[in-house]
Design goal:
alpha+beta; binds flavin-adenine dinucleotide; 24 strands; globular; 629 residues; 36% helix; 22 helices; single chain; five-stranded parallel β-sheet
Length: 629
Amino acid sequence: MNSKINGVKENYDIVVVGAGHAGCEAALCAARLGLKTIMFTVSVDSIALMPCNPNIGGTSKGHLVREIDALGGEMGKNTDKAFIQSKMLNKSKGPAVHSLRAQADKKNYTQCMRDVLENTDNLTIKQAEVSELIVEDNIVKGVITSSGAEYYSTSVVLCTGVYLKAKCIYGDVVNYTGPNGLMAANHLSQSLIDNGIEIRRFKTGTPARVDKRTIDFSKMEEQKGDECITPFSFTNKAEDIERPQISCWLTYTSENTHNIIKNNIDRSPLYSGVIEGTGPRYCPSIEDKVMRFADKSRHQVFIEPEGEYTNEMYVGGMSTSLPEDVQYAMYRSVPGLENVNIVRNGYAIEYDCINPLQLKPTLELKNIAGLFCAGQINGSSGYEEAAAQGLVAGVNAVKYVKGESPIIINRSMGYIGVLIDDLVTKGTNEPYRMMTSRSEYRLMLRQDNADQRLTTLGYEIGLISEERYSKFLDKINTIKYHINRLQSTIIGANKEANDLLISYDSTPLVSGVYFSDLIKRPELSYGKLLLLDKKCDILSDDIIEQIDNFFKYEGYIEKQNRQIEQFKKLENKLIPEDIDYSSVGSLRLEAIQKLEKIRPISIGQASRISGVSPADISVLLIYLKTYNR
Ligand SMILES: Cc1cc2nc3c(=O)[nH]c(=O)nc-3n(C[C@H](O)[C@H](O)[C@H](O)COP(=O)(O)OP(=O)(O)OC[C@H]3O[C@@H](n4cnc5c(N)ncnc54)[C@H](O)[C@@H]3O)c2cc1C
């Protein structure tokens, strides 16, 4: 113990370090499941801060938010309270990539989450910097703050985000602060290193915020929200959250923009080496885009409101750490921004995070019992990715305290499973952001059926109330009832039916067909055929959508279900914790090294480790047969 102690000694069941998107979910889980919990943050005014893009969701991230909600998390509900625009993306494509995205009023988002946290029983919020872990015999015992106060607990969840040894950079300006000038956390990294945790340096960036009054919107394309709003939370109805929406605007960089960047690239801290941290390939800065995609004559720029009661506008697609004078020239070279005033400069932030290969699929550290990590500290990037991990780490910290078996959400259950498995099995060398292409079961992991995949688990954990669960069961039974009914309902070749089919350019009937077969026609849908369904009660849009998706994708879904059965067989083949891979004859050296480092819990996880071949897996399977005997 290095810190000076000031005599304050407090006891809790769970300590959560961080009140960002991960910390909020973790702390709420722990407190709602009845454990005495304290949540630390360097500033209580930055609870659930959105330091970058003013939106929640989008492709694959919307899926994560829906899954968090289906499990009983808070992000979906909070977004439904604070959104100022809502849009279902990729509607013209298949349901696997339909993704909800909401523009949020950042201040309101923070305030709404703070209200929930401050009024949650068993939860204490403390503004203090945690500077040291208390660890005895590789078991976590609590934390110490920079003021010397000791907080003992059975479990600790680290959700430190972008604050550990944070450094904000633009041009040759370097500020040793967290985002938005908040205090950085400069002491905990050393304590992690002292406890054998491998640390690395990552980086991400954000664009400037500009003054709305200085933008010429006549040179931009208005991007409106959807008329019919889809709530993020399964507990909300569209009519309950409807409100006037605020538009975003689309413009593009110009050739001049690209020239300004190229002519000043030597002054970019990214290219001059001032920035050491590794940045996200899938969220590149504008200078990276211009240099890497030189063939592209222009890049999209989305002007997004930061909130309802502010003139600050976010310049999406132009995150940068170029010097201030270059930023002025660069932003003012964009059509519509010619006279723009910059309210906050764009900047890059470097921060310490851990190598996630040190984590179990439960998000507990392998070498320190009771210590869990979630969010940006695990090498991910994004509010949604952080919140998803926070929920899982929070639940598993509770399970640890109660001596119960942890939960593992695997790749076939949700994007949360894909996210965590990718991090702890494959690792990441840059900030990891979720994408639908990362899942092999995309059609099963749609945003519209997250409740069917995860709400029962949320109920078993204790995060879903009886009342909500019975409503959920009613919904499932209603869907099943109508699916069975439509599979045996015959639509006759009558005038009413054929007039409707013709109105949708669909081939008229010559004889009776099953209703379900009509729904399967590409040009039709259950929604379009409702007029023909005489026995149908008033069904909500989400139930109609489920019936549609069931019939439209029946074949694909059956195929994916068979693949998932195969996947589960390997996932359920558990590997003994104490296995000595060097004693497994004919395993290749590289495989032994990788397996020893990651210590997978199942054959399934082992098969996803890069450097472990199918032949190695066969050897392991044979070895386990004899091992178990
Ligand atoms: C400049 C910038 C640009 C970004 N750009 C993108 C982007 O382009 N795309 C994207 O997906 N995401 C981006 N992000 C990341 C996004 O903000 C994070 O992914 C998300 O906020 C992570 O959530 P988190 O809960 O892990 O951590 P954070 O939201 O960072 O919260 C961390 C919390 O931990 C607290 N804390 C940290 N250390 C301590 C300590 N020792 N003691 C007490 N409290 C502590 C802080 O006070 C804070 O409450 C950006 C972030 C920043 C700052």
